[in-house]
Amino acid sequence: MLKKLLYSAFLIFICTNQAIVAAETAIEIKEPWIRSAPPNVSVMAGYLQLSNHSHETVTLKSVSSKQFHSVEIHQTVHHNGMAHMKKVEPLILEGHQELKFEPGGYHLMLMDPHAPLKKGDSAHIKLIFSNGEELMVEAKVQDDSPDGTKMDHDDHHQHH
Amino acid sequence: MISRFKIPLIALAILFGVIITVSFLEQTEPTPLEFDSSMGIPVMSPAIPLPSITLTDQHNNAFPTSSLKGSWNLMFFGYTNCPDVCPTTLMTMNQVAKKLPQEPINYVFVTVDPNRDSAEKLKQYVSFFNADFIGLTGDKADIDLLSETVGVIYDYEGDIEAGSYIVNHYAAILVVDPKGRLRAHILPPHTVDKVVDAVNQIRDYYGN
Q1: Tell me, what's the ipTM?
Q2: Within the 8-47 window of chain B, which residues sit less than 8 Å (CB to CB) from chain A?
Q3: Residue among A81, A103, A107 whose CB faces B172 most closely
Q4: Chain A residues closer than 8 Å to B80 by CB
Q5: Sign, Cα dihedral of B32, B35, B37, B43
Q6: Residues B5 and B81 in one domain
Q7: pLDDT at position A150, please?
Q8: In a domain, A3, yes or no
Q9: Mean of the pLDDT values across residues A120-143?
Q10: What parts of chain B have a pLDDT lower than 70?
Q11: B65: CATH
């Protein structure tokens, strides 16, 4: 009985503790992943979802990974069938803005991996924001987006 | 010396010849297949023959464009340092290939960055997506002739001498018919179903 009580108290502690942590960071990063790529490539693409829970506009000051020489934010823009890559600098998140990185749109351009990353491997990516928050995410290398939507842009348009 | 009377006759004969040729062409080229404009699948009518050039495949073998004759082909132009669009499209083409397993379709990736993309590099790259896919590189002049003919434009951005540049490129999947002619462009975004439907409709309409 005492054990059970302690266990419940422990669980409550964990839950509330996590809620406090989540409330403390204005920026939330969800579902980071890296698109699997042939072993010889010099660039890989990473995707994630950024949410700014604060009222303030927040700017991404730097993004880096110890497993890559450098990391930049790029956006693929399609115009008349032409795919342009635009470097996004600075990346600005308005108050309460959510920004989804996805194939054919915003992506992390992960340049010159120090060692090839295979499917199932993961990379740590560090993002530093203008509000002082430093977030480290672990992105797994996989074939498709974790939410399974992949690049079905047409479907998105139909649903919304 | 052609007599005065013969000139109108010759003109008439030429005109007649033109009319016959045009009507013959019209007969061999059916009414163009049209997709809803929102689909982004412009169909070429008449189809545009690919230039007769020889590229190099990923096994370092000569690959004349005539090798594409005999079956339908899906062709995509890109480069191996392309992080987002090319892997996305090649993965889509791999899923299309899985959905059309009975069809002898060639899936062809042509680099628009031949200086960096050797046959060896293309081999590793293309086989990652599907070992049966064809990767083509070659002389830039040949690739330019091919890309211009089929309406693929591209440009380099960055420090070309230092080898640090990206390539902005036309990202449609091209449909090439069994006579080696460009039949349609499938514009991005590419969902697997969109590409499969387009290929099925085009192939059913124009036959082999």
Answers
A1: 0.75
A2: 40
A3: A81
A4: 38, 40-41
A5: negative
A6: no
A7: 47
A8: no
A9: 96
A10: 1-5, 21-28
A11: 3.40.30.10
